[in-house]
């Protein structure tokens, strides 16, 4: 009986974790998570920052909140109504391994964001690039994971509100994972391209994939 209850309690957690993973598979939701790391914002405030409609931003905020990737930071009175401000906590829910289609969908969204951000890079200023598909010792893999996790903590814990005087905008993307021993093992079960995740207006991201990359400016 104890084991049965344990399995039942684990199911809702796993469902939330899977929703969290899939919620990442959209460029606009990735932008929202970045924006709401530096400061809690309402859907109207986030819409103004991103140049999107409030209805579209509200839709994506709701998905991120339901997936456990956003938390309600505060409720305030605005012009006689109530406005909810959300933020992306540094320590969010642990993400499961996911399946091949989940990996490709998230990589697609990340690739789309990297293209957009690269168009705003300041020419002539230094940055860093790492891209590799390598074979390394297990201890090297674990060390790389630890360094990637440290980078993530640093940039998220020290994130500032947009427009902070004296601050700089930066881009950092790390997609670090173990690969199958041969290429056939890593193919999605369906053998095809995963369906894109459309937003409220029907837009969707194109497919792309990558191994390890980091870019900062």
3D structure, described in words:
There is one protein chain. With 217 residues, this protein is mainly alpha-helical. It is built from 6 helices and 2 strands. The chain has helices spanning 2-23, 27-38, 43-50, 54-66, 100-118, 138-157; strands at 71-78, 81-87. The chain has a two-stranded antiparallel sheet with strand order 1-2. A hairpin with a 2-residue loop joins strand 1 and strand 2 (81-87). Helix 2 packs across helix 4 and helix 2 (27-38) crosses helix 5 (100-118). The radius of gyration is 19 Å and the shape is globular. The model is unreliable at 1-10 and 188-217 (pLDDT under 50).
Q: Order of helices and strands, N to C?
A: HHHHEEHH
**Oligomer state of the chains in this structure:** single chain
Which structural class is indicated by helix and strand composition?
mainly alpha
Helix content: 40-55%
**Largest β sheet strand count, sense and barrel closure:** 2 strands, antiparallel
Mean pLDDT: 79
Determine the N-to-C terminus distance.
55 Å
Count the DSSP helices.
Answer: 6
Radius of gyration, in Å, reads 19 Å
Give the strand order of the largest sheet, numbering strands 1, 2, ... along the chain. Answer: 1-2
Residue stretches low in confidence (pLDDT < 50, at least 5 long) are: 1-10, 188-217
Strand content: 5-15%
**Shape, principal axes of CA atoms:** globular
* Strand elements, count: 2
